[in-house]
């Protein structure tokens, strides 16, 4: 269950203020079908993070446990430091909006997650814990916990969340996970 809780918390915090959260806000202002947007976010995230977890577990099978410890630990710290950089507000290309609330959300969210901090975090968490199912469940839940309120509460919520404090908290969380990994505590690697 540690994999589930670490994935949920890590991805949820990393997602706050992320470009995909801004995308959720954008989609919520463009489409009135909030449930279709939420379902689209879920489908896109499930597909993207399942692929990420498979990659993470696969990498862990072909790399020695000692080397994996260093790669994962240092990568957690790098992701933590990356979280200190705010995402740029990127407006999605309007050509995708013709697919409606659900279609546009699936396409735009899936593409926005490629190479995103939360996708990389999912790869690292899967490599660390070797529990693909729980990492996928946790990372998808974490992303949903961060984005669903944005879809329904929109701009009101974004004004009340201090993005800088959240980025610093997420940085600390990932750096601590990196340090714990490097020290060899709580690691499940074969």
Automatic annotation (TrEMBL):
It is a multi-pass membrane protein. InterPro entries: GDT1-like (IPR001727). Pfam families: GDT1. Keywords: Membrane, Transmembrane, Transmembrane helix. The keyword Transmembrane applies. It is found in: Membrane. The chain crosses the membrane at residues 36-61, 67-84, 132-153, 165-188. Belongs to the GDT1 family. This is GDT1 family protein. The lineage of its organism: Bacteria, Pseudomonadati, Pseudomonadota, Betaproteobacteria, Neisseriales.
